[in-house]
Write a structure and sequence with these properties.
The structure is a single chain. The protein is of the alpha+beta class and 112 residues long. It folds into 2 domains: 49 residues, no CATH class; 61 residues, IHF-like DNA-binding proteins (HU Protein, Chain A). Helices cover 34% and strands 24% of the residues. It is built from 3 helices and 5 strands. It has a 3-stranded antiparallel sheet with strand order 1-2-5. It has a two-stranded antiparallel sheet with strand order 3-4. Helix 1 crosses helix 2. The two termini are 22 Å apart.
Length: 112
């Protein structure tokens, strides 16, 4: 699948869709787009419901609540209240970390 993705630049939604289309030759482009969009929608819906999303060999997305706090503008030093909010966090799997660092992934497939 990596042959479709462009090296040296940001991988876009269109690049990922093309990779899905190339990897599944029996699907039409419209079917590949539908499956891809449904997958992204389900991930977003799960996070919206405060559910963790774990993708084996890739990593885990979680939603974390941050409390209200006082922040400071680094340029002016003026204090300002930062409202409570929910943020999405991502923790890469050991397999992904090894791949990014050019290390062997032998024995790591079942680590996450």
């Amino acid at each position: 699948m990596s042959k479709v993705l462009n090296n040296g630049r940001t991988t876009t939604r269109a690049d990922l869709l093309d990779a899905v289309f190339e990897a599944c030759p029996t699907l039409s482009r419209a079917q590949a787009r539908t499956i891809f969009e449904m997958t992204l929608e389900e991930i977003g819906d799960s996070l919206d419901r405060n559910e963790a999303v774990k993708l084996r060999g890739f990593g885990a997305f979680n939603v974390r609540s941050k409390r209200e706090r006082v922040g400071r503008n680094p340029k002016t030093g003026v204090e300002a209240a930062i409202k409570p909010r929910r943020v999405v966090t991502f923790k890469p799997s050991p397999v992904l970390v090894a791949r990014v660092n050019g290390q062997s992934i032998e024995g790591l497939e079942n680590a996450d």
